[in-house]
Amino acid sequence: MTQVLRRHAEDQFAEELAEIGKVDRRQRPANWKMSPWGVVSYLMGGKLDNGFEVSAKYIGNQRLMEIAVATLVTDRALLLYGVPGTAKSWVSEHLAAAVSGDSTMLIQGTAGTSEEQLRYGWNYAELLANGPSEKALVPSPLVHAMRLGKIARVEELTRIPADVQDTLITVLSEKTLPIPELGSEVQATRGFSVIATANNRDKGVNELSSALKRRFNTVVLPVPSSEEEEVRIVAKRVSELGRALELPAEPPALKEIRRVVQIFRELRNGQTEDGKTRIKSPSSTLSTAEAISVINSGMALSGHFGDGELHASDIASSLLGAVIKDPVNDTVVWKEYLETVVKERPEWKELYRACREQL
Q1: Using one digit for the tens of pLDDT, what is the confidence trace for 58-116?
Q2: Has residue 2 been placed in a domain?
Q3: Is 188 helix (H, G, I), strand (E, B) or coil?
Q4: Of the candidates 123, 122, 105, which has an alpha carbon nearest to the alpha carbon of residue 180?
Q5: Separation between Cα atoms, residue 350 and residue 341, nearest integer Å
Q6: At what angle do helices 312-323 and 288-305 cross, to 10 degrees?
Q7: Could you tell me if 124 and 5 are in contact, meaning their C-beta atoms sit under 8 angstroms apart?
């Protein structure tokens, strides 16, 4: 059997979804696999009435998840908004998995996304041979979701050109998609909704029109509020990814994770954690997702080219790549941080030497 690199949420956490379904006796909206309570329980994790332990998919404010789920119960679409790396796509996928049992109705937004990718396209061989027909129509994931009463996901909505974004207005307001070529329309089945994600930090962002914004209920996902919370998120995801990728390295010590998180938070906030030293921030976002990537890259180096234990030298090169996106300005910021902060911490001497060697 072929081993996929990344399993869909509904496959990876099928046991948890099934266990929640066994104890979930609350009212379920039409075509939902579980109740709103069950969806939030799946996202936030915890012990069920039958003693089964559900893992946390989102570590943060539960009220935000309740608002997101409550939005999907209504006729409003949901927009998950925030800076890069705040788990928008992760939450979107798990919401769709819990609500619809299917997180694959996905449209990835890019600068080249066209109306056809959002609405429908055509099988041109069939179109030329027999003219417009249902057989020649190539439905988008959005159309599939409308017909089946499932959740459609639109990733990076603000990357999509503004005129293409507005294609969604009729779908979100009228719950129907006209097909003028066939003189027909696709009407949404109950249970259908749209979850979109967006951030305002990338270059080339296209602002949403006022008309489109009004069709969404926006939930802003913040960066982790505390170092402890961010360390928990990174440790959890590093552990999961390490198992999934079968990295031949020992799980990193918590102190190594905490050190990477602290570096990211200090550079992101423009000051040391104790507030005593002001520092410059680089152009990179230094998100939680990037901290996870730095640790995983270090584990891969340690497992395949080291002794299997994560050392400062294993994470130094990944740190450099995460911090320095602008080779000129960010290099100056990173060197200054090394000399004024890292060098002055006795327990970070090894990391300081490893990072200096990479420059």
Answers
A1: 999 999 999 999 999 998 999 999 888 889 999 999 999 999 999 999 999 999 999 99
A2: no
A3: coil
A4: 122
A5: 14
A6: 140
A7: no
Q: Which amino acid does the sequence have at 178?
A: P
Q: Is residue 1 part of a domain?
A: no
Tokens 């959740």, located at residue: 151
Is the pTM of the predicted complex or chain greater than 0.85? yes
Q: Which amino acid belongs to residue 272?
A: T
Nearest C-alpha neighbor of 151 from the set 109, 96, 226, 215: 96
Cα distances (Å, whole numbers) of residue 191 to 32, 158, 308: 6, 25, 48
CATH number of the domain bearing residue 66: 3.40.50.300
Residue 71, both tokens: 């939005």
Between CA 301 and CA 146 the distance in angstroms is 45
Domain containing residue 38: 9-220
